[in-house]
Design brief:
mainly alpha; two-stranded antiparallel sheet; 7 helices
């Protein structure tokens, strides 16, 4: 599927907006950073593939996301930790459907949005793990990755803001653990 530069820019920036609504990753016992509700995110694109009809698959996706994301496990009980992500995601889907009248193209836009969000999760967790908590190194790696990605789509001006937001997002998990949260 072909996207215009503006469409791709919207998808990429939206994928980072979604990333920042996921509960921040935490280091496991081996020091590897991970998102606790990762499996729910990874499985979302599958719901878009379950039905051949594009409109029906988008409806199925919305129902699937609305059912499973609020039930993301946090400490053995249902919680609303994924609700902010779900709210933004559903608003993005509404936006895509209002801009894209062809249901097949809308479905592809949603697939790419989810795919890029999942890749963002993997990339930042890898950077956090490889940098071993060194904020300067994390910032450098994020600037390199985001700088390259955003420059290509004409959004280089968003690099520093996103780097700063991702670092604050990471630190929110550390502060939450330090003060007895999560």
């Amino acid at each position: 599927m072909e996207f215009s530069k503006e469409e791709l820019k919207e998808i990429v920036l939206s994928s980072y907006e979604l990333l920042l609504k996921i509960p921040a990753p935490e280091a496991n016992n081996n020091g590897k950073f991970e998102i606790k509700s990762r499996s729910k995110l990874k499985n979302l694109p599958e719901s878009l593939r379950e039905m051949e009809d594009a409109s029906a698959s988008i409806t199925h996706f919305v129902k699937t996301a609305s059912y499973f994301l609020p039930r993301a496990d946090k400490g053995g009980r249902d919680d609303i930790i994924m609700q902010p992500f779900l709210d933004i995601l559903l608003n993005k889907v509404i936006g895509i459907q209002s801009r894209e009248k062809d249901a097949k193209r809308a479905r592809e836009n949603i697939k790419y949005l989810l795919g890029y969000t999942n890749w963002n999760v993997d990339a930042v967790c890898t950077i956090f793990t490889a940098s071993k908590g060194d904020i300067i190194e994390i910032k450098r790696r994020l600037q390199t990755m985001l700088g390259a990605e955003l420059n290509i789509i004409g959004a280089a001006e968003s690099t520093e803001k996103l780097v700063s937001e991702i670092i604050k997002w990471k630190q929110s998990a550390s502060e939450s653990r330090q003060y007895g949260g999560r």
